[in-house]
Amino acid sequence: MPDAAPGSSQQQVRGAAPEGATDTESASRAVRDMFTSIAPRYDLLNHLLSANVDKLWWRRTARTFRHILSREGARALDLCCGTGDMAFALRKQGRAATITGADFSHAMLVRARRKTTSASAITWIESDALRLPFPDNSFDLVTSAFGFRNLADYDAGLREIFRVLRSGGECGILDFSEPGGIVGKAYNVYFKSVLPRIGKLISGNNGAYAYLPASVKRFPSPPELIDRMGQAGFRESVWIPYTFGIAGLFRGKKL
Questions:
Q1: How far apart, in whole angstroms, are the C-alpha atoms of residue 8 and residue 180?
Q2: Distances from the Cα of 23 to the Cαs of 17, 19, 176, in angstroms?
Q3: Residue 11 lies in a domain
Q4: In a domain, 127, yes or no
Q5: Domain range enclosing 81
Q6: Cα angle 183-185-186, degrees, rounded to a multiple of 5
Q7: Quick check: is 4 in a domain?
Q8: Could you please report the per-residue DSSP string of 33-90?
Q9: What is the pTM of this model?
């Protein structure tokens, strides 16, 4: 898969590149197939492998956007929503808001729908994050929790988020990072050696949990992604580290 971003003066990673992918289309197919295969154990492994810290990250992200979600008539979109945990966290912060979850894995959405209650009232849509079926200026908030990293084209994904946001709207991309120092060394041992073994044992899929640390290593650093957010049109973009920088929230506005 070519890594040069269109119009860039230096080599940049275009997007996710699972083993065997040769272009953006094959990368997208590989990611979809991978998440479809691990969907039955996805929630269990997320909580187990993160020691339930992932729940804290979702809640913290949702609270960050409470000022939007609490508005009457606010509309929020959670991209690459998986089984819906980020969308459910958004719902708890904004009962008056309309929440939509979108993912291109049908198997993931089946599980999200099973978890949905009448009180949560979330709409689930099967859709590619690079080709969203929404008009321009549709949402006040767009989030993505641990899914944006798997897009086959990061810049195209940012442009699509920007397109569907209303003026004054915000985006929040929650994803893994690579911390430094002693924490980073311990994290790397766990992430690259322990996690793939546990993931394979429980899910039966070796490739998915070997792909995870590789995808984090490939993902743009916070300064680079913030720069790319600026190129897509976002302003006042920042990165807020969570848990010693193991994860973090990229936040930007459409002015």
A1: 28
A2: 8, 11, 24
A3: no
A4: yes
A5: 24-253
A6: 65
A7: no
A8: HHHHHHGGGHHHHHHHHTTTHHHHHHHHHHHHTHHHHTSTT-EEEEET-TTSHHHHHH
A9: 0.91
SS (H, E, C) 199-250: HHHHHCCHHHHHHHHHHHHHCCCHHHHHHHHHHHCCEEEEEEEEHHHCEEEE
| 159: helix, strand or coil | helix
- CA-based end-to-end distance of the chain: 34
- Domain presence at residue 16: no
DSSP code of residue 95? T
**AA letter at 128:** D
Q: In this structure, are residues 235 and 48 in contact, taking their beta carbons and an 8 Å threshold?
A: no
Q: How many domains does the chain have?
A: 1
Q: What is the chain's pLDDT, residue by residue, as a tens digit (255 residues)? A: 445 444 443 478 999 988 888 899 999 999 999 888 888 888 887 777 788 899 999 999 999 999 999 999 999 999 999 999 999 999 999 988 999 999 999 999 999 999 999 878 899 999 999 999 999 999 999 999 999 999 999 999 999 999 999 999 999 999 999 888 888 888 888 878 887 788 778 777 767 778 888 899 999 999 999 999 999 999 999 999 999 999 999 999 999
Could you identify the residue written with the tokens 């959670």?
Answer: 78
